[in-house]
């Protein structure tokens, strides 16, 4: 029988439950507040919108490479993985449990940000989640984020991701505070054309985020690769103190100073002394990693 962790499965194409079932050790997952509990949004019916019995996020416990972890997986196919009251409460509760149990947590991000129909509740949920992430990290818990889903990781979801101990991303992953449509709506198509997929991935995609040190590991679009990335991330130091925060602040100031006036990702890549920056989007993973690991800005000092 084939080992399920050696079969190639696209992280991008899988559902949240599919990702979890192949990320975790076989038969190790126990779900908290599953669909049978009918914990649905109290707000969506007011807008005559369909509800989902897990409210777009799956939380529970399992093992990765025999290591006990808590896990949360957002379902980007339900309302773009947007975060509302129940969705947020499930993730906050899991993070608080991680603090009490001193157990590392892995979050499978796939979200467009706050659910607009639950704007106030969603914004509060983001704040509560961020607080819970930092509390967990202060208690010595590793909070690992995996990014490579259809919805990307935008808005409040990106702020949560930025507070994690380590991030693993694929080329298909996108990470940005503002999504392409939001930028275009507020600043115009001349500023950012959300239909230009090459521009979107060049600006927000996994390769760019890895090159500028916004994430810690770059993997191919394969669940086994994400599993290996999560295993490696769970070995990283769990420290969160003033020295870590000061190093992160310094790194971000340096990034702004070096790249703040660049008009395109290719200009940033050129400033990283990459010889042919325009070729980055077309490079296969091995070629890209060879280039990136020589020239990228490192996030290690601040993590």
TrEMBL record:
Keywords: Transferase
Keyword Transferase: yes
Cross-referenced Pfam families: Carboxyl_trans (PF01039)
Listed GO biological process terms: carbohydrate metabolic process; fatty acid biosynthetic process; malonyl-CoA biosynthetic process
Residue ranges occupied by any CoA carboxyltransferase N-terminal domain in the UniProt entry: 1-242
GO MF annotations in UniProt: acetyl-CoA carboxylase activity; carboxy-lyase activity; transferase activity
PANTHER family attached to this UniProt entry: ACETYL-COENZYME A CARBOXYLASE CARBOXYL TRANSFERASE SUBUNIT BETA, CHLOROPLASTIC, MALONATE DECARBOXYLASE BETA SUBUNIT
The protein, known as: Malonate decarboxylase beta subunit
Organism annotation: Rhizobium miluonense
Lineage: Bacteria, Pseudomonadati, Pseudomonadota, Alphaproteobacteria, Hyphomicrobiales
